[in-house]
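Support request, please re-run this one:
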Amino acid sequence: MKKIHLFSDGSSLGNPGPGGWGTILRYKNAIKELSGGAPNTTNNIMELTGVVEGLKALKEPCNIEIVSDSKYVVQGINEWLVNWEKNNWKTASKSPVKNLELWQEYLKVSRQHQINAIWVKGHAGHEENERCDILAKNEAQKLK
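Re-run finished. Output below.
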């Protein structure tokens, strides 16, 4: 099984407002950059969309390390998702899970992979995270 590093970041100007996401897929020395945006969105939606779009770009089951500066995404993947699904898409406080369709899309595109999500501090010099931030902000700026 291929070992893939998926780096991703999201941006929203206004939250909600024009937003963008940027993702880098790295396999050995090969790198692929992806990005996109939405005219009226939130930061959390763009953060998660970057991960989903990165996973969609993979053609076979992989061992994936997702690296993100979004605690929402990392904790969602590593901690919350199992219980949300078990509890009929309710949070621990019994309220509906936000961005439900996007989380369900994540589940759909992630099931064939082995995934570990890692949080990194944003704007702290992490090379790929900084590049993803630029990609995301550029996409959001296009929609301003």
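Helices lie at 43-56, 71-86, 100-110, 127-142. The longest strand covers residues 30-41.
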